[in-house]
Design brief:
- It is a multi-pass membrane protein.
- With 235 residues, this protein is mainly α.
- It has a two-stranded antiparallel ribbon with strand order 1-2.
- Helix 2 runs antiparallel to helix 3, helix 3 runs antiparallel to helix 9 and helix 6 packs antiparallel against helix 7.
- The termini are far apart.
- Bound molecules: protoporphyrin IX containing FE (2 copies).
- The site of one protoporphyrin IX containing FE has 20 residues, from helix 2, helix 6, helix 7 and helix 8.
Length: 235
Amino acid sequence: MDKANSETSASQSSNDLRPVKVWDISIRVFHWSLALLIGFLWWSGTEGVEMENHVLAGYAVLALVSYRIIWGILGSYHARFTSFIRSPLSTLKAIPDVLSVRSDSHYTGHNPVGGWMVVALLLILLAQGISGLGTTDDIFIDGPLVEYLEEEMVALFSDWHTTLPDYLIALVLLHLAAVFYHDAVKRERLIRSMITGIKYTTVRDSSSELPVKRFLLVTGGLSLLGWWLLKDILV
Ligand code: HEM
Ligand code: HEM
């Protein structure tokens, strides 16, 4: 599916809207698990409670983000980075359209601005999760790398781990503001699409059904890697 086809004119009437499978089931499970885990991690981290579960939830976020990055290369059509990451210039040009009150449902997957937001969220989550591995609270809980790192490195990781959440929360709030703007003002039901996987669009676009064999290969490989990395820590 070429770009011109998936960013067609918005002038077509809403009667032309037809359903397209845009988010495969793995993207939807990834997304809602992530939202729940981040809520828990924020609460447990800032309150300093349930810290053993905080560490487990942190590993789960690292696993989810690793999956999403691999799925961004090997996954279903709309999950792939190449289907939604545009050059900085095209992204700048898309801003008026994305901000305008009228619907831009001619973007079947993420619009160009949303595409960069996805990259920013994934990178900050990755950085937050990795920094946790070298973080200590100096009392009960150490990340698994703390015993192998120099003291200054642990101080640096711990510093990042307590600073990055402010930026993470700012990005999440911006993400939510954008999603609700699309829903309430532009009348595009993005939240419903992230639940059902279906988007209504004027474009004849590729469907994003789950490629089952590839999914099993990727999750099987990641599970083996996770088991190998964590087997000594979790028993
Ligand atoms: C993306 C995943 C994660 C998020 C969003 C997150 C979030 C947070 C937050 C908000 C805090 C409180 C910071 C503060 O005191 O201001 C915290 C503390 C902490 N986190 Fe995480 N965390 C994540 C992953 C991890 C991982 C993977 C580990 C360890 C393996 C970990 C270990 C810790 C420790 C030990 C503290 C206590 C630090 C202190 O008291 O100074 N976190 N985390
Ligand atoms: C901590 C909370 C959250 C995080 C970290 C987060 C992160 C993300 C990420 C990474 C994506 C890209 C999905 C992908 O391509 O794999 C995304 C998309 C999306 N998120 Fe969230 N999200 C959070 C909370 C929420 C909440 C609470 C809602 C709804 C009320 C929501 C609604 C959406 C929607 C509708 C999309 C798809 C946007 C589009 O169609 O372009 N998110 N989110």
